[in-house]
Amino acid sequence: MANNVSKEFELYEPMRVWLQQYLEDKYKGWQIYTIDSHARTLDSFLEENGVVDNYPQTVGLDIQIDVLGILKRGNKSGIVFIEAKKTQLNLHDLGQLWAYCKLCDPLEAFLLSSNGLGSLNKILNNLSRTDLLDFGDGKTIKKMQVGKWDVLRKSIDFKTLVPKM
């Protein structure tokens, strides 16, 4: 089928390219690296890029993010996650990303599926439970963003994004 992929890994590079442009547009003046990071643990990429000291809680955890953004400016750093799925999204997928976000506190996090929101559509849109997207350090509450990935446009289908950008 032309509007989906046969293997999940086919989503990673187009999502990485999209993330690179998105971060460059949003975080002017930062050094930005985006990585197809599905094959190794998060801490190994943070170590490689010299920012693991800012995320000591990641060391030794078996966290494998599909697409990772690393931002650096001076001695500050930030990370951004994309978790990719080729199947319709469900609560398990959301829980996986939520746990990663609670542990690592990224600047932003996206849960994207090339096959739609699935059962999360009811939870997030019909039941209005966007509180399930909350994460942060307690002082600042951030929200994971959930949406459909448009395979043909190689971009998020922004009309499906929860919460809206």
In short:
By secondary structure, the chain is of the alpha/beta class. 27% of the residues lie in helices and 30% in strands.
Note the topology.
Elements (H helix, E strand, L loop, with lengths): L11 H15 L4 E6 L5 H7 L18 E7 L2 E10 L5 H14 L3 E6 L5 H8 L7 E3 L4 E3 L1 E6 L4 E8 L3
Please give a structural write-up.
27% of the residues lie in helices and 30% in strands. The chain is built from 4 helices and 8 strands; from the N terminus they run αβαββαβαββββ. It has a 6-stranded mixed sheet with strand order 1-2-3-4-7-8, sandwiched between helices. Strands 5-6 form a two-stranded antiparallel sheet. The longest helix is centred in the N-terminal third of the chain and has 15 residues, at 12-26.
Mean pLDDT: 95
Q: Helix amount, in percent?
A: 25-40%
Structure classification:
alpha/beta
> What's the total helix number?
4
Provide keyphrases for this structure.
two-stranded antiparallel ribbon, 4 helices, 165 residues, alpha/beta, single chain, 8 strands
